[in-house]
Amino acid sequence: xxxxxxxxxxxNDGNGRREGxxxxxxxxxxxxxRFPSLGERSFDRYSYGTRTSINYSSNKNNDVFNxxxxxxxxxxxxxxxxxxxxxxxxxxxNTLLRQLNYFNSNLQTKRG
Length: 112
Known about the structure:
- By secondary structure, the chain is mainly β.
- Helices cover 0% and strands 81% of the residues.
- The chain has one domain (2-111).
- It is built from no helices and six strands.
């Protein structure tokens, strides 16, 4: 008869800078819309688990008994704090038609 017990734990935290610049051209309305963004995106991740197994064997009539159990837990949290500076301009004259600056902070959590 034998048994095994094991456990693990893993943690990853990371911070990063996010820069983006996207634009769309609307040739029907003769406009260009720009969507530049700048901000910080961070991650907190961890996971842990445990595993156990029990083995039994007999020789006379070849009795064998095996039992294994595994359990784990995962967690991830992502925070994004990003500033946007959206603007729409005339495609021909480059005249600014409208502008919207805003800050978006969001938190996404995953568990399992």
